[in-house]
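Title: Prediction job returns without error message
Component: structure pipeline
Severity: low
Priority: P3
Assignee: unassigned

Description:
Job completed but the reporter wants confirmation the result is attached to the right record. Sequence as submitted:
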Amino acid sequence: MNNNILQVSYAQTGQSASHNNMGMREMQARAFAERNSQYLLIKAPPASGKSRALMFLGLDKLVHQGLRKVIVAVPEMSIGSSFKDTDLTKFGFFADWKIKPEYNLCTSGSETGKANVFKRFMESDDQTLVCTHSTLRSVFDKLTPSDFDNCLVAIDEFHHVSADENSRLGSLIDVLMNHSSAHILAMTGSYFRGDTVPILLPEDEAKFTKVTYTYYEQLNGYKYLKTLGIGYHFYQNRYIDALPSVLDPSKKTIIHIPNVNSGESTKDKYTEVDAILEVLGDEVVQEPDTGIYSVVCRKSGKTLRIANLVDDNAYMRPKVQAYLRDIETADQMDIIIALGMAKEGFDWPFCEHVLTIGYRSSMTEIVQIIGRATRDCEGKTHAQFTNLIAQPDAQDDDVKVSVNNMLKAITTSLLMEQILAPSIQFKPRSQWTGGDLPKNTVIIDDSVSKVSQKVIDILNGDKGEILSALMAKEALVKGVITEAMPPEVINEIELPSVIQTLYPDLEEHEVEQIKSGLLQSMYISQHGGLVDEKDLPADAVIDENGLSGHNGNGKPSNDESGASRQFIKMGDKFINIENLNIDLIDSVNPFHGAYEILSKTVNAAMLKTIQETVRSSQAKVSEEEAVMLWPRIKAFTQENQRHPSLNSSDPIEQRYAEVLSYIRKMRQQRMAEQEGDA
């Protein structure tokens, strides 16, 4: 069966697709409002209109802000077509976007030749150029930073940048910011610093004005797409044998086969494609002019049109790519099989299902893959992401690898929930003028303890980045997922540490405010989100200040400001979010949903194997964890009249026993040191 960890419904408001009197969609208008910023970072999902947002911003900087040039850099040549000549004035804007053919460097040719054209452009009066990241890097070494004075350098798919000292694109950005007057526009749909190393150093990132347009805003504002599911299917033996249970040939699907270096791969990508075609049907014929396969579907008898992007034949692949670029109707393509392609920047609006085989370690890659199915398209009401992953086998020598992959995949879904589901927003009471709150908004009482704007901005804009960095601590996170470690270890030690690392200039009380807000946001999500009081059912049972009571019409009285209050459902009662016990929030297991799906997916014996594997590879006990768990260990000993046992079947008791062993060892060492000193 297919297990959806996340199933989100959207309102189909049409808002994200509507245009203002300048021809701008919602995200583009939000970015344009910050057009005077020298450094601008746009975080917005695929299909939200980032390319055209750049055109609006670039033209304003040329026409109204006095900049000399706009240079657009994209990660690969195929994405360069997004910045072709575009008529903007007919929709109400004050200028059109134009690129001279000779300054579109996203074409075939040598890097040396492109570098020479780039240098000629910099010396000319022409104003716009498009190139790849690679071309920008190579030509940058032949110019001086001052050559980019009063120019806008726009980096598309900015997550390719890294603060690592070996990242040439990252060092290029650093040089421009510190040794030129260049303006920088960074655009990305996948800004996750926890993937590997930071994209920007904290001191550089602080200089950027951030424009965030969430996945939820984008999808909720579509006209046609109603629901999105993120699910996992675990298989044994060969993934090919599991395909019939997860692959519906009637759905427009992109299949990403596993990397050849992964455990799921057969190591022969061509044979895998043949096997997938065999699963789908019979009478396989490849059209010589297009490279597209026709397959008679075994289930329906319909002829399926299938594109093979795994075959890197220099003669046939360009034909397939050309065919895909010209698709205008749904019946022109049914299934695309890919390996490294059809992810970033790939546009097939009709795609309903992305089926990805094997665990993907990069959160950025997963966001990009899901983005292939979340384009709005008439006739498409549901988008689905399915990750097909090998189930651990207790008898397998690689059981540890399988366990790691399974738990990483499930963990990723929790981060996706923060990205794709309604985002909880926080507003200080001092900034609230009264009246109804915006949907999914929580008021922070700052009458006693002040809350800085920096804290509010981080809570409202960077929750996904904090969680991504937290999930990089694999051993700890896996311990919490499998309930082999108390969640307080994450909440009280690791989460504050991550926040402090990402934002080193925060004060201690600000770290605590962000930690509490993040946990509160996750707690609300785990309980189905916020419910406005006017939407409470007529027979709602309200729990106010710990006192249960039945409200006859289900409508509790408003607070003093006349605002509509927010509730969450716990069991059969509704609790005012402002009355939620802080200790309850602090004890929330951030990965409770992951354990639920894990326990439902595997049998008891497999769950025990997974827990034992995690415990055997778990991080060593730290002094901070020992200090925090010592009161719990004492309470356990008193309640059970015995010490916790390493042989217990309860993973938490096992962890208590490990911590107790650590404490005893430390005590013995200190006693020995004291005797030595004497």
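Comment from assignee: result matches the submitted record. Residues 374 and 439 are 23 Å apart (CA to CA).
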